[in-house]
Amino acid sequence: MAEELPEKIIEAGIEPFEQSLTRCGLSLMRGRTRTLQINVGLICDLACRHCHLEAGPLRREIMTIETMDAVVDYAARVGFETIDVTGGAPELVPHIEYFLLRLSPHTSKLIVRTNLVALLRDETIGLMQLYRDLRVTIAASLPSTNASQADSQRGKGVWEKSIEVLRKLNELGYGVPGSGLELDLVANPAGAFLPADQHQAETKYRRDLQKSGIVFSSLFVFANMPLGRFRAWLEQSGNLQGYLRTLAERFNPAVVSGLMCRSLISVSWDGYLFDCDFNLASGLHHGPAKMHVSQIKRLPDEGIPIPTGEHCYACTAGSGFT
Q1: Mean pLDDT for the chain?
Q2: Which of 70, 85, 123, 233 is the most exposed place for a label (fewest CB within 10 A)?
Q3: pTM to 2 decimals?
Q4: Which residues fall within 8 angstroms of residue 1, CB to CB, at 6 or more apart?
């Protein structure tokens, strides 16, 4: 479903994102596409409070093997520098091993995004070795280094399980300097405020996780999207308008040229194209008409406009989401 943009923007007292761009003499147009992002489904063993897609255990939207094959055919036709597999929890999607094995030859960098705890299940624990064999870059969500705060966002006991998986990944060489196995952590704030400075946050994460014997490659901090489950929480807590104003007030025109949507094409679990995972959550399709991955024969054209919504303020607040 598309966002209800005008009413909420008017209530929050901010201008539509497109107007902010125009006021700064900018437009959001697609550049050269380098990354293929693939959302393999909304099934997840967690129901995190900040999830913009409302993924969870009861979701049944998953990529079929036929759609997987269509995505692989597209990747083979055009070539991508990076292929980024996300969810939900990709580990819970049937045939995910098959999919990763088929994708791997078609890119120099294959990323899998994980909530960590999905790798502890009996049916998925072998995926860590597959990731290592394929030299997959792991992007692991870890919203906090505080156990009680992490559990409040993700569920009771999730912190301990996350640390257990991180130790196992370290044992395989992930995050260890010189191994070439990249383990990146991704953090989001716990509430209706912007993230801390990335450099300061990374220093704190390294210090805190070292107490548990954990090492990692890099930390990335991002603002929460006013979408999905997080948006529902903002509305219920009376924080939506204030959060939207905060994002708009921190709009940074300098980051627009480097936004990921300019160089990324996203494919949904049912095979349709979007300019990013956030537009997917908003129902804003790529291009002038809804298009299936099996219909596209080349990289997206440069210079075409990218659909925007109020959530785009989260990608352009402060240091931005690039």
Answers
A1: 93
A2: 123
A3: 0.93
A4: 283
